[in-house]
């Protein structure tokens, strides 16, 4: 009777597997510093507007700031650490929930009407509706 032996390829090169796992786990760590975490967002377009949806779970509406400067949309949020009364006598073994500042900068196309941007915050998702300006037709200049 013959038996088929199977091997986990990860066991053949444990050091190499570990190096690749570490690389891919930390590949984007520079973009998410401790003081300036990135927030995941979706950017989409309709005929007359752009839509941006940014996940900001646990951040209160009062701690979110949206501004436009030099045609760049800046979204900032602050996650405040507040210990509740029942947490004060606890010993923490693992702390993964981020507390601090979030910030994203998105370059806007020239045809955005930044005077009419609408913003709403619902269930931890910030939604921005950015209307498009009507295109200005080219003007022909006659040479005299």
Care to describe what's here?
- The chain has 2 helices and 7 strands, in the order ααβββββββ.
- With 144 residues, it is mostly beta strands.
- It has a 4-stranded antiparallel sheet with strand order 1-2-7-6, with no helix packed on it. The chain has a 3-stranded antiparallel sheet with strand order 3-4-5, with no helix packed on it.
- The model is unreliable at 3-7 and 23-36 (pLDDT under 50).
- A hairpin with a 2-residue loop joins strand 3 (64-69) and strand 4.
- The longest helix has 12 residues, at 14-25.
- It has a domain at 35-82 and 93-134: Immunoglobulin-like (Sandwich), CATH 2.60.40.
What are the main properties of this structure?
7 strands, four-stranded antiparallel sheet, Immunoglobulin-like, 32% strand, 144 residues, mainly beta
Describe what is shown at a glance:
With 144 residues, the protein is mostly beta strands. It has helices at 9-12, 14-25, and strands at 41-45, 49-55, 64-69, 72-79, 100-107, 118-122, 125-131.
CATH topology of the domain at 35-82 and 93-134: Immunoglobulin-like
Report the top-level CATH class of the domain at 35-82 and 93-134.
Mainly Beta
| N/C terminus separation | 100 Å
Rg, please?
Answer: 24 Å
Oligomeric grouping of the chains = single chain
How do the helices and strands follow one another from N- to C-terminus?
A: HHEEEEEEE
Helix content: 10-25%
Uncertain segments of ≥5 residues (pLDDT<50)?
3-7, 23-36
- Report the biggest beta sheet as strand number plus sense, adding barrel if it closes: 4 strands, antiparallel
Mean pLDDT: 78
Q: What structural category characterises the helix and strand content?
A: mainly beta
Number of strands: 7
Arrangement of strands in the largest sheet: 1-2-7-6
Q: Note the overall shape.
A: elongated
* % residues in beta strands: 25-35%
The CATH level-2 architecture of the domain at 35-82 and 93-134 is identified as Sandwich
**Tally of helical runs:** 2
